[in-house]
Amino acid sequence: MIGIVCDSGTDLPEELKNKENVRVVPLRVVLDDKSYRDGIEISEGELLSYMEEKIPKTSLPPQSEVEEAFVSLIEKGYSEIISINISSGLSGTYNLFRRAGESVMEKYPVKIAAIDSRSISIGSGLLIYKALQLIEKKKMAFEDIVAELKKVLKDRIGVYFAIPTLKFLKAGGRIGRVSATVGELLKIKPVISIDEDGIYYTVAKARGMNRAVKLVMEKVMNFVFNKSIEAIAVYISGDDPATKKYAEQIKEKLNELKPKMVLTGKLSSALLVHAGSGLVGVAVLIGDY
C-alpha cells in the first residue's frame, strides 16, 4: 500500500486531507515569538487581526513530528510512501521532509520518495490529487508513480495569482523574482506565477485588482489552450466580499471549460502570513498530451 505525507502549505481540501492514506504535517505560524500549528491552533481571523499592525513569521515543524507522520502510516501497513511538499525554492519544508524520510528508512523496511512540487498552495495540492488518482488505480508500481509525478510537475501544473500588496511577501523574504518595487501608489498589481525552479516571478502587471484578476484568467486560458483539464482550483485569502466575488466570477468562467474536477478553498495560515488578505489564485492540472 502507498501513502502520502505532505505539509499544510499544500492547502489540500478536506476531502483529500481525510483520506486514510494521507498525513498532513502542520507548518508553524509565529506571533511575537509564540509558535502555533497551522490550521489547528490559530484561525484566519486571529491571524488577520494580528497582521493589521504586525508582521507574523513562519517556521518549520520539528523533524520528529514529520517522522511521526511517516511512522503512523507504516503502523497502518503502508510500506511505500511519497512525500510531497511546497517548493524548495520558497521554503525549507522539502529538505526537512526528505531528511525525515531518510531517517525513517534507517529504522523501518520501507520505501520513501521525496518530491519537490516546485509549486505552492493548491498547486502542490494538485500534484497530491494526481498522486492519489494514480495510487487508487492500482495499476502502477511505486517507482513508476514517482516518475510520473515528476513529469507532471514539470509542465502540467500551472499556478497564477494576484494579491493586493507585496508587503508581506517582501517582509517574509519570499519575494523571489517579483519586483518588490511594483508601484503600490499607482495601484499596480503583479500577476505572479512560479518558474521551473519553483520561485515566484511576475508574468504580467495591471492597474488595480479587477484588471489583475482578469489577467490571471487570461494566463490560465493560455495555459490550458486546446488541452484537457483534469482539475482546476480557485483559492483566496481573507473574507473580503470583493475577493469572494472575483473567485465566483473565475469559477463561472472556468466551468465553461468543463474540467473533470473543480476545487475551491482558502490559503492556510502559514501561506496567509506571506500573501496577506485578498489573494485570488488559480491552479490547473492539465491532462495527458
Task: Give the structure's gist in a few sentences.
By secondary structure, the chain is of the alpha/beta class.
Q: Specify the structural class.
A: alpha/beta
CATH architecture of the largest domain: 2-Layer Sandwich
Q: Estimate the helix proportion, in percent.
A: 25-40%
Low-pLDDT windows of residues: none
Assign the CATH class of the largest domain: Alpha Beta
Strand content: 25-35%
Globally, the shape reads globular
Can you give the mean pLDDT? 93
Task: Report what the structure shows.
Keywords: Lipid-binding. Helix content is 39%, strand content 26%. It is built from ten helices and 13 strands. Strands 10-9-8-13-11-12 form a six-stranded mixed beta sheet, with helices on both faces. It has a four-stranded parallel beta sheet with strand order 2-1-6-7, with helices on both faces. Strands 4-3-5 form a three-stranded antiparallel beta sheet, covered by helices on one side.
